[in-house]
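Lay summary. Proteins are chains of building blocks that fold into shapes, and those shapes determine what they do. In this project we predict the shape from the chain. Here is one chain we studied, written as its sequence of building blocks.
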Amino acid sequence: MEGPVGRKSRTKQDRRRAERQEDRATRGTHIEVQPGLKIPVAGGQTLIADPLLPDQRARYSRRLERAAAAGPDRLLAIRDRLREIFAQVPTAEVLARLVGDVYAFDPETGKESETRLPTILVEYATWLATRLGAPVHGERISDERYSELAKLLSEMLELTVTMYQAAHITKGAAQPSVEDQIVVTSQMHTLTVRNPGFAVFAYELMESLFRPVDADLRHMVGFDVDALLKVWRHIEQHVTDRLNDALDEARTQARELKTLVDTGSLDEQYRPLLPPKYRRLKPQRLRAMIAAFLEWTERKEVFVRAEELLGVTPKWLADGIGLDSAVCKRILDQFALPFGHPAVADDLMSRYEELEARPLVPLSQDRYLAHLFHLWMWGARENLEAALKTDPVAWARYEPARAEFVESRSIELLAKMLPGAHVERQLRYPYTRADGTPAIGELDGLIVYGGVLLLVEAKGGPVKAAAKRGATKSLRQDLTDVIGDAYGQAVRARDHIQASDRASFTRNDGTIFEIERDDIRETFLVTVSLESLDVFEMHLAELRELGILKSGEFPWAVSLLDLEVFAELLEWGPQLIHYLRRRLPLNTMDTLLMEELDLLGAYLANGLRLPREAQYGAPLRMTSYTESMDDYYHYRHGLRQTPAPRPRAQLDPETREAAEIASQMPPAEALAAMTTLLDRALPDIG
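And here is the predicted shape, written in a compact code that computers can read:
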């Protein structure tokens, strides 16, 4: 009996060893985009996928099966150990140290591609610490305990993502369904991706949304949107500056000590303290180890001052921005998550909407830890909307004003990108329902530019938290409400125009607008959402398979915050049409796309030029093209001091000069001339 068991055991060990070797060989160079498929990754390039060989697919499948079987118990074990740790360690120091290790970066040099770990690691730690009523102060966390904590957080994230990927196996399916794929994509995106736009537009958005209900806000929460934005801006500027300054100081001290180590000046001081096994190392290797230890120690010491670096008080705010201290305290309290809040998702790693809406941690003596400044700007809308919903009269004032803003701003931005276009808003027209009864349809916007028609529908409603976490029923309903219904309304308006030689619409003032069908050579359906829906907008083909979108052409589904960027970075009207002609076919290709702004960045860099293999169905992945945008908007927002140029299309001087001249022509002539120029300067699929 021992022989066969031994062989099986050895075979299992060999298989696992092979898997580990494969993982080491591809770690950091490949990403698994679906079970059994890894593709290479390189910043700023479009790359063809490397399909795994059959035996590699089989190994990947076995790994998912093991995760589906053993993962839940391990997740619970990690959760329980983390609970024990957080119940004993000082909250401020641990959370600040995680911030520094996970995502603190210098906006002068920080790049999107250099983000080391998802911010969910800090968010989850914050959720557990505040959930358990962890001690704010206490004995410093030991290096061993902190190392264990960091490893457990990383393991939980990796295992949670693997469990998402393995979920279809628990249903007994050999391959995930389209619905499974959408759910997994949503779960992984929700868990690991943050910042749905650039902060400079977040301020403008908040002001536009809440200025009409300032009186309601002052009555219900004790402050208006102007006061909130002043506090918000002051915290963002000064807290990030404090942390970066402290980390710079630690780096400087570490470099000075490293110089002493490299010259041998500290040999006599440090060598006697080393364990005997290290004393035999060559001086160069030994000094390198000592230098690394000193740098790590200096960085670690920064976070002993966590409350000083990341803490804010009402008095500090009042002194800095001139608001009444009581108003500042009301704002801080409104956005602080109290200790001892109820559990969500069994305290397993998830995205916690309550934490996003209330990202400050209350410490003591009116001091609040503002370490989650990446959430502060994006959760504020949800926070204030929840407050307004408690008063039906206030909500009845806010909700239609929100819808009107999203609609008007969307059409304003599109009109800005298409100078000289004919623009109509809020049109009505007759149509016949499926049951044969007459009805009146509504269209948010209609734009005609040089024979090109854009039919625009905008939605201000949210996608609920349950949908983002992958609740199937909620996911279908919310995507139908925000994307599907907008698309359906645009399709209905298109059908109305195509049904007769001359289509009539009624404006709000009762006048008639007519459009000749033969004057339209090309039509684009545009849906704009207030909510950032990149995770779904990049997978419209899957939404069609779920029945959320009808058959026919795909819309350009874009968020309002992304549309703000398009309106600023596209220089000439024909560029938008040229972009849409190249972008929309990607919906039917086998692509893994991260966000709409990556596609804009790729268009500015190379005309959204794709590899020839994409024509023949080869899978591809579009990597990040937004670093120049990050630099530009960090500078515009004041987080970066070094000027960064506005990103623009990479055209040679002669083409750029010709484009400037062509853009001054009437829309039809401008579109024809610039299409020729751009096609020649930026060839399509190679």
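What the prediction tells us: The chain is about 55% helix and 10% strand.
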